[in-house]
Amino acid sequence: MDSELEAKILDILDRHRIMTIATLRPDGWPQATTVGYASVGLTLYFLCALDSQKAANLAHDDRVSLTIDHDTPDLMAITGLSMAALAEAVTDRAEAETALRLMPAKYPASTTLPMPMPGPDEVRIFRLTPVVISVLDYAKGFGHSDLVTV
Q1: Helix or strand or coil: residue 8?
Q2: Is residue 32 classed as helix, strand or coil in its secondary structure?
Q3: Inter-residue contact 37 to 18 (CB < 8 Å)
Q4: Is 63:50 a contact under the CB 8 Å cutoff?
Q5: Alpha carbon distance 46, 52 (integer Å)
Q6: Pairing of strands 79-89, 145-149
Q7: Mind listing the pLDDT tens digit of every residue in the chain (150 residues)?
Q8: How far apart are CA 116 and CA 109, in angstroms?
Q9: Per-domain residue ranges for the chain?
Q10: Over the Cα atoms of the chain, what is R_g?
């Protein structure tokens, strides 16, 4: 991946804090949900309830698709990314604690959370490792995207 495209991907990841993630239900139907995320480089982390449908889906099939973008009134200013990634439950306690510390840092204007941040034993934390990333940038032309295999 060239450095300019990687910088654009990292900028998009840094500027946003929610994504839509699609997992596969055991019956084969996709399930798309909005979740908060944090990232370190190209690796993304998100958490969900221990007994959530997302956690059950990922126990069945670790493949996900996700999108990160924002609304804009200017059609030619649309930017974002979509990603095919592999999800893995974080089992290392130190990595889980790091991921949990990264989440509230995405909300710097908030000095306190409305509730206590859950501990690693109270939620399921997933690490997403990208396989393919599509970077959408209409400033380069209507519907323009650059495809990157990681």
Answers
A1: helix
A2: strand
A3: yes
A4: no
A5: 13
A6: unpaired
A7: 899 999 999 999 999 999 999 999 999 999 999 999 999 999 999 999 999 999 999 999 999 999 999 988 888 888 899 999 999 999 999 999 999 999 988 877 766 667 778 888 899 999 999 999 999 999 999 999 999 999
A8: 17
A9: 3-149
A10: 16
Q: How far is it, in rounded angstroms, from Cα 116 to Cα 90?
A: 20
Tokens found for residue 107 = 């909300």
Give the span between the Cα atoms of 138 and 144, in whole angstroms: 5
**Nearest by Cα to 150 from 46, 18, 44:** 44
**Which of 38, 42, 41 is closest to 105 using CA atoms?**
38
> β-strands 30-36, 63-69: how paired?
unpaired
Distance in angstroms (rounded) separating the CA atoms of residues 99 and 15: 17
Instruction: For residues 22 and 140, give the distance between their C-alpha atoms in angstroms, rounded to a whole number.
Output: 27
Tokens read off for 37: 């995320």
pTM of the predicted model as reported, rounded to 2 decimal places: 0.91
Domain 3-149 part of CATH 2.30.110.10: yes
